[in-house]
Amino acid sequence: MLIKFAVQDFLEDKKYKNLSTKTIEGYKRSLNMFHEYCVKQEVLNVEDIRPMTIKSFLIHLEAEHGNNATSRNNKLRIVKNFMSWCQDNELISDKQNVAKKVNYAREEIILKPFSDAQINQMLSYLRSNKQRERTFLSYRNYIIIVFLLGTGVRLGELISITWNDMDLKNGSASILGKKRELSSVPLTDKLIKEMAE
Questions:
Q1: CA 22: distance to chain centroid?
Q2: Which CATH architecture has domain 116-196?
Q3: CB 125 within 8 A of CB 118
Q4: Quick one: residue 152, left, alpha or beta (phi over 0 = left, psi -120 to 50 = alpha)?
Q5: Which residues contact 41 (CB under 8 A, 6 or more apart)?
Q6: 8-state DSSP, 42
Q7: Which helix (H) or strand (E) holds 12?
Q8: What CA–CA distance (Å, rounded) separates 84 from 90?
Q9: Distance CA 92, CA 47 (A)
Q10: Measured between alpha carbons, how far is 57 from 52 in angstroms, rounded to an integer?
Q11: Which residues are CB-contacts of 151 (< 8 A; sequence separation ≥ 6)?
Q12: What pLDDT, on the 0 to 100 scale, is given for residue 6?
């Protein structure tokens, strides 16, 4: 089967499975890049993809687009997902699923958390801004930072929270997590006081 049509079917299947629009767009961007690269290499059918096709695509991403190891690994993860889908849907055999043979690049991820001094500086600025301006935005910005620091939730999880998800009396918030699973996050007394205000 032509890669182009396999990619279209793959994306339709992801829509059917109710994946988020953002996830589907990410798949689409990466697979379109992969398809374009394959066409330039005169690889048109899914069954003609070789391990070196995928590896040279990843090298191309680094050289031409400046992708770091993390970005390349994300795109490789999508290609692997696509190839596994092709195998599951009998477009290729287990032996033809060559993406299994391509390993992820080693990533050097160094996350540097904010220091206590930086956190205090942020909060001090937002507190004084809230006192000075007394606008909805200044209160909102302050409580966003306080909530993120107090709960450790992701930004995407915070965005989807409504007041109905807050239980200030029992000190918890219901969070819809990354895998669409509902979980309860405890709220500190200080955070409850700030939220009530």
A1: 8
A2: Orthogonal Bundle (1.10)
A3: no
A4: left
A5: 53, 56
A6: T
A7: helix 3-16
A8: 10
A9: 6
A10: 8
A11: 173, 175, 185, 186, 187, 191
A12: 96
Where are the domains positioned within the chain?
A: 3-101, 116-196
Give CATH for domain 3-101. Answer: 1.10.150
Single pTM value for the model? 0.60
Taking alpha carbons only, the member of 15, 20, 10 closest to residue 78 is 10
Strands 172-176 and 166-167: what pairing? antiparallel
54-76 residues labelled b (16+ CB within 10 A) or e (exposed) = beebbebbeeeeebeeebbbebb
Residue percentage of the chain with pLDDT more than 90? 56
pLDDT, tens digit (0-9, with 9 covering 90-100), for 120-162: 999 899 989 888 988 889 888 898 998 998 888 888 888 888 8
Is it the case that residue 109 has pLDDT exceeding 80? no
CA 177 from centroid of its chain's CA atoms: 12
What's the one-letter identity of residue 37? Y
What is the residue whose two structure tokens read 């998800």? 165
Q: At what angle do helices 116-133 and 136-151 cross, to 10 degrees?
A: 160
Q: Is the pLDDT of residue 180 over 80?
A: no
Provide the edge-to-edge strand list for the sheet that holds 166-167: 166-167, 172-176, 182-186
